[in-house]
Amino acid sequence: xxxxxxxxxxxxxxxxxxxxxxxxxxxxxxxxxxxxxxxxxxxxxxxxxxxxxxxxxxxxxxxxxxxxxxxxxxxxxxxxxxxxxxxxxxxxxxxxxxxxxxxxxxxxxxxxxxxxxxxxxxxxxxxxxxxxxxxxxxxxxxxxxxxxxxxxxxxxxxxxxxxxxxxxxxxxxxxxxxxxxxxxxxxxxxxxxxxxxxxxxxxxxxxxxxxxxxxxxxxxxxxxxxxxxxxxxxxxxxxxxxxxxxxxxxxxxxxxxxxxxxxxxxxxxxxxxxxxxxxxxxxxxxxxxxxxxxxxxxxxxxxxxxxxxxxxxxxxx
Length: 317
Ligand code: SF4
What we know:
A hairpin with a 3-residue loop joins strand 1 (116-118) and strand 2 (122-125). This protein has helices at residues 3-8, 13-21, 27-44, 56-75, 79-98, 102-111, 126-132, 155-173, 183-195, 214-224, 231-243, 248-255, 263-276, 283-288, 301-309, and strands at 116-118, 122-125, 145-147, 150-153. Helix content is 58%, strand content 4%. The longest helix has 20 residues, at 56-75. Iron/sulfur cluster is lined by residues 213-215, 283, 286, 292-296, 298, 301, 304.
């Protein structure tokens, strides 16, 4: 593989092997690029793409900066920061794959252990699809074409599935052991900590046992444990919270613990849901979205709340 491939996809085995023997001349520049990589990932949610017309020495720095970033982010000792970093790395790889050759994208897929073939469609092995498909209604199996044990996708959908696989790979490999990390990496980590937003604290919301429907309770718990919720789950939860009387600011704050949180986008979506007067999805819709987690014997998560309390009322601080 060419160096430009590894600079785009530095999480691959080949990039790792390259690093084991590479000689990086300018260590100061390497640390600066690595710190910038994490500050951009955590602070802006996005790592800018480097030009592929760079000289080899610069491409090598890009690959090395990924390796150093992993050490620095491990020292931040925060699952929230790690997940946010992994999301930005995955988006970076995805942006490259969107315009890369099929040959290169297939190489990335093989690296990630995603069984696939390209013919008329981009077909992904069933079990890999189940593992990596985004949790949204568009990717539900009932909405997909299947053939011979594989799920048929468009190219952009295929890249999206690979993006998820990259994210999970990076998340699962971090944090690295921080024992014996060099002093300059520790200093870089302290510097990064001072340049990134503070880790958001979960919004104070008291949920008495049985107050919220189990599906909503589960999503609220997932938010607190910094799990990424699918777009559909966020929408259902936001609409539900609005329907029980929470204010836009309170709903937005609840979502702020999500690693891919973007305040302006979230606020826009919550205000939009309020303005359009969306109603909480019925239990059968929730089931079709894959969000129902129990059999409560009600028709709507709101009815569950009514059943528990006789009337709708928000209880939050
Ligand atoms: S049955 Fe309805 S209220 Fe209960 S978990 Fe499923 S969707 Fe939620």
